[in-house]
Amino acid sequence: MRQSTLLLNTLRESPAEAEVASHELLLRGGFIRQLAAGIYTYLPLGRRVLRKIEQIIREEMELTGAQEILMPALQPADLWKESGRHNVYGPELMRLSDRNEREFVLGPTHEEVITALVRDEINSYRKLPVTLYQIQTKFRDERRPRFGLLRGREFVMKDAYSFDTDWEGLDRSYRKMYGAYERIFERMGLNYRAVEADAGAIGGEGETHEFMALADIGEDTIVSCTCCDYAANIEAAVGRDGAESVVPSSEVLPREKIQTPGLRTIDELVAGLQVEAQQIIKTLIYKADQQMVAVLVRGDHQVNELKVMKYLNTENLEIVDSGALQELGLAPAGSIGPCGLHIPVLVDQEVASMSEGITGGNEADVHEIHVRPGRDFKLDQVGDFRNVVEGDHCLNCQQGRLKFSRGIEMGHIFKLGTKYSEKLQAHYLNSSGKKEPMIMGCYGIGISRLLSAIAEQCHDDRGMIWPMSVAPFQVHLILISSKNEQQTQAADRLYAELAQQGIEVLYDDRNESAGVKFKDSELIGIPLRITLGKNAEQGEVELTVRKNGHREFVSIDEVVNLVKEKVKG
Q1: 448 plus 477 within the same structural domain
Q2: Of 227, 557, 179, 185, the residue nearest 392 (C-alpha)
Q3: pLDDT, tens digit, for every residue of 208-240?
Q4: How far apart, in whole angstroms, are the C-alpha atoms of residue 136 and residue 495?
Q5: How far apart are CA 423 and CA 433, in angstroms?
Q6: Which residue, among 407, 406, 389, 403, has the nearest Cα to 224 in the 3D structure?
Q7: What is the pTM of this model?
Q8: Which of the listed residues 33, 165, 180, 382 has the most CB atoms within 10 Å of its CB?
Q9: Domain range holding 100?
C-alpha cells in the first residue's frame, strides 16, 4: 500500500477526549475516529489490525472444531422474555420497536438466539456435541462510555456456544476453549492472567473464567496469591482475614448504648470513639427483589453485592436509601444495628468470628458497644459476603497472601449448564429416546477491546509498537526524497520485491520531510522500518526494529531475505 493513497491522517496533539494511552494513540495514529460517545469508525489501519485479530481467533476456534456462523444483531424481544433476561439485563439493553410495534433488542450477546437456533436444528444425541461461533457487532447502552474502545456502546465480539449431552462433555468443551484462549492471547503478545470470575448477567451453573490483560488503567481488580497460581476477579475472590485481630477485653460485658451525636461513618466512629475500624460492625439494609435483608460486615470491609445475590439466589439487589429506611421505621443510615432487627440478617464470617463489636443502636445518634455475635444477634445465616482486601490469607494454598493488580477484561468463558436450554426448550433425544436438556457453554472475546488492550501494553512515548502477529503492516518502507530519482527507483523496486514475497508493506512515498515521515512511522508503530536515503547510492538501506530501536545498514540485495526471517520470527 502506498501511503500517498492511504486514508491516514495522523494527529500531532493529543485529542481532548482521550483519557488513556491506548485511546490517545489509536486516535493520533489514525486507527479510529469517534462518531458519537462510545461509537467509533475503524479507519484502514485499525481495520487491518482487527482483521489480524479476527484471523488468529478464527484459526484457533477451528482447531477446537468450532464452526462459524453469523446471527442477526436485531433480536425479537420475545426471546429475551422467554429466557427471563428482558428485564434483568437492565438499561444497558438497547430496546426498540418496528413499525408494527413489535419489540426488538440490539444484541449485546446471543445466548437466546443460538439456543433457539440449535433447538430447531438439532434433536438427537447423534448430532452432539457441537460448538458454533460468530464474529459480529454488539450493542450496549453504556451509561458512561469511556477509555475509547474499552467501554463503548458498539463493539466487535467473538461469541461461541457449545452444546453437549452431559456435564463431562461440557468439561471437555470448556477445557478446549480455555486452551484456545491461552493460545490466542499468547499469539498476540499479551501479558495476561486467567482468573476465576462471577457469571454476572450471563448466568450459569458452573465455573467461569475471565482473561485479563494486565494494565494499570484496567477497570477490573485482579486478586492473586503471592505463593500459588490462584487468581480471581475481586467479585469472585475469596480469602481469610489477614489483619491482626484487635482483642478488646477478655471480660464478657453486657452490651451498652452510648450517645454518638454526629458519628455516622466508619471514619467518624474511629476518630470519635478512638477505636479501630475492625472493631466496628457495619449494618447495611438491602432490597433483594421484594425482600428486605440486612448484611453485616466489619468496619474495614466492603460488602460484595454479587456474593450476596448469589447466596440469596436473587436477580436484583439495591441498597435502601435514607427515605426508604424512614418509611420502614428504621433508624437513619449509620445508626442501624443488628440487635432487634425483624428482617433476615446475613452475617459475614469475619463478623461471626468477632468476640464483640460496636454496632448501630437503632436510634438516631446512638451506638451499642460490647455487642457479641451469637449472643446479642443470631448467626442463622453466616457466609462470605465481603470483598477480599490486600494481605488476606490465600485459601488455595494456605500460605500466601493476596495482592491486587489491575486488568482489562478481554475474554470470558462460562459453563451455562441448562440455564437457557431449559427455558427455551432446547432438548435432544438420548439413546433411550428420552428428552434431555442440552448442556451449554458460552465463550466470548472482545475483539475491539483487544485492539485497545494491545495498544495499552505495546507502546512507548513516541507511539505504537505493534506485535508482528497483529500489526497493520509488517514493514514500513520510507523513501527519504521522492525528488531523488535514484532513491525513488530503488524504493519502487524494493517495494515490488517485498510484495512479491508476501510481505505486507506500507510504502511512504509522500512528498514530506524526513522528520514528518519518521514521526508518523514511530506513531503508527509498524514492527520493521526500511529507510531508503542517501546510502542508496552505495546500495544500502537502514533496517530499524521498532520494538528495541536496533538499527543496521544492510545491502539492498540482502534486505528482503533478512526481513523475511524477522517476519517469520
Answers
A1: no
A2: 227
A3: 999 999 999 998 899 999 999 999 999 889 999
A4: 34
A5: 21
A6: 403
A7: 0.88
A8: 180
A9: 21-190+418-456
